[in-house]
Amino acid sequence: MNWPVITPLVIFLLVIFAVGFWSHKFVFKTHSFLEEYFLGERQMGGFILAMTMVATYGSASSFIGGPGVAYTQGLGWVLLAMAQLATGYFTLMVLGKKFAIVARQYKAITLIDFLKERYQSKTVVLLSAASIVIFLFSSMTAQWIGGARLVESLTGLPYTTALLIFAFSVLIFVIVGGFRAVALTDAVQGVVMFMGTLILLVATIKAGGGIPKIIHDLAAENPNLISPFGAERTLTPAYVSSYWILVGIGVVGLPQITVRAMSYKNSKAMHSAIIIGTIVVGFIMLGMHLIGVFARPVLPGVKIGDTVMPLLSMKVLPPFAAGIVLAAPMAAIMSTVDALLILVSSALVKDVYLNYIKPTAGDSHVKKISFSVTAIIGLIVIILALSPPNLIIWLNLFSFGGLESVFIWPVIFGLYWMKGNKYGAIASMVLGMSSYILFDRFYPNALGVHTVVLPILISMLGFVVVSLLTQQRNGLEKTYQRI
Amino acid sequence: MKKPFNSKDKRFKVAHREALIGVVLVIINFIWWYGFAYGLGSDKVENYTYIWGLPAWFFYSCIAGFIVMIVIVSLTVKFLFTDVPFEDEEEGHEHK
């Protein structure tokens, strides 16, 4: 066991626990359990809001996978990663005040609450809940596996033990503390992610002998590494630009992000979150991917991309500092998993159970159900992560784009286009999901752009056309509008 | 029909304007990013110029672009965004 590296990780975990238990106080005191447990009573300030957005969004791929690809592709991949800068301001500005106000008028606690009130349709609710549960379940499992692998590689513990340590630490603070614990720990984790990026970036530049020398070394090895086109010149402008949809503006449609856009206290919080969020997300994405590229001359010949970041930290940093830096991906994974966990739990408890199975449930019953559903989901995920079935891995591959194609238009048109109706929403969700799966299977990266682009266009068309058609029908023959 | 929220609410005018600003910012961001990256970066690598040791296309597109966006976003929020209350003063309540 490598104690100097592990000590900062343990301290980090203890801080996270402390925050989780502190939040539990609020869960007990609150007069509105559901709003507290699933939304932190809409009390998030600017800093917390910015951090919870960034941390939820930044996941294993920002700290492990992304830098690994940047290592192979060079600066072209950093360029691609910078499409994510938009998430810092775009989501909050576009959902913005309208979403915050409308969600309060609807008394919505989850994204699905909003869709339910807006479209008044059981089909919309069930479709949304199903997509959230299916896709987020699988991406949660994948993140969980990533976290366990990381603990395994850092501590030398066997995979199963590592998984259990990782899983139980997340489960405990989420179950006891709810959304508030998730958001507060996200703030701590966001700070750790930011610091980790900064320390590692400086250390890597130093180890490589300064930026000019690193760039010179890269160009000497393969000039394409410092071009925007990738090592094999395969990154076309159209393909790279299409990431602005997948990881830039499409993020508006991710339920784990949208739910945060209704959790803040007032418009001041939103304003400062926009600025802080832009700075932090930009810095982390730029920094981590640049680290991946700069690692190449420092640490040549790494075969598995995912190991670049841990190996580099161990090589260029003293052990204690490496521990702090490696807490960053851990923080990134935990902060994504915890958000997904509470979201899946809210979809099941609030959106399905309370809406359709037992609307009359009393407060203490709801409490019991919420705690136990969250715990059970966690346990199922652990079991799945122990020996992940292929289906999970397959689903995870398109959970990001899939969720975006399902939710983006029902949310955006729901807010800004009064003519949009439930038929349009249903059409857009079904078309978005099915065309995404079909394109992914049979014609990935159609027309040279990322697979997500066409389904998003198709689901937009579906929404608009069906909404307009059914409006006419509603007017002409009122009797037919029932479904 | 659908449950309409009170679309005459004055706060929504502010909200709509700010959402539009978000769209404009993303377009500016994209043009800056694309223009410098492929405008300067499409040249042969031997002809690249360097700033702070980084290829000029990368410096302008990603580093300067990041800083420019922080400045624009901060100025926009400071001068164009308006504080509005989120809680209703009774008028917007159609249910419960």
UniProtKB/TrEMBL annotation, chain A:
Keywords: Membrane, Transmembrane, Transmembrane helix, Transport. It is a multi-pass membrane protein. The chain crosses the membrane at residues 6-23, 44-64, 76-95, 124-145, 157-179, 191-215, 243-262, 274-299, 319-349, 369-386, 392-416, 423-439, 451-470. It holds the Pfam family SSF. It is found in: Membrane. Its main location: membrane. Belongs to the sodium:solute symporter (SSF) (TC 2.A.21) family. This is Sodium/panthothenate symporter. It comes from Neobacillus paridis. The lineage of its organism: Bacteria, Bacillati, Bacillota, Bacilli, Bacillales. The gene is panF.
